[in-house]
Amino acid sequence: MKGTVKFLGALVIAFVVMLAFRGLVMTVCAIEGDGLAPQFVEGDRVVVNRWSYGLRTGKKGSLFDYGRICRQEVKKGEFIAFEDSLGHILICQCTGVPGDTVYTRKGQAPSVVPGLFNCDDQDYYWVRSVSKNNPIDSRQLGFIPEERIIGRACLVLFSRDPMAPFWKGYRSDRLLLPK
User: Fold this and answer.
1) pTM here?
2) Which of 16, 25, 50, 137 is a Cys-bridge partner for 151, taking CB atoms 3.0 to 4.6 Å apart?
3) How many Å apart are CA 144 and CA 69, to the nearest integer?
């Protein structure tokens, strides 16, 4: 009986530690679609470092206001994970940071030159999808406020072909691949 109680206690502690680690340190996101190919392909499980830009705390309009512990700047060219307005987690490449002016012409890829949109108003970022076939990026989503940024995509943990049965389709060439 004591062995069962110890086992269940250890299981509960391990579960709580795992939840705290996922919520405070790192999380894993799945890549859906080919919007980031060839850097990320459909089926990749990507580790996102929540501390790369500082840990997010609170939200605007909630009990605790938005802030970051150990805040650092997002750099151009980095792949960032962020929440869209519906709460979905997306990963895109950052191409515009506060202080940049972004100009788009008829939905084409943006240029960071003097033009129409200013990222500097409230720490907004402009992100883009790498693929031209399936772009879900700032051209559709608009500016990404800093409060929605989760962290930097830092590692492909593993990759699995989503069309294969669950016991097959793992890609050995995309195992623990740093980004």
Assistant:
1) 0.80
2) 50
3) 19
The CA distance from 3 to 155, in Å, is 38
Nearest CA to 92 among 35, 134, 46?
35
Residue 8 exposed, middle or buried by CB count within 10 Å (0-12, 13-18, 19+): exposed
d(CA 30, CA 89): 9
If one counts every other C-beta atom within 10 angstroms of the C-beta of residue 28, the result is 12
pLDDT per residue as tens digits for the range 40-80: 888 999 999 999 998 887 776 677 777 788 888 999 999 99
Nearest in space to 97 (alpha carbons), one of 149, 56, 55, 57: 149
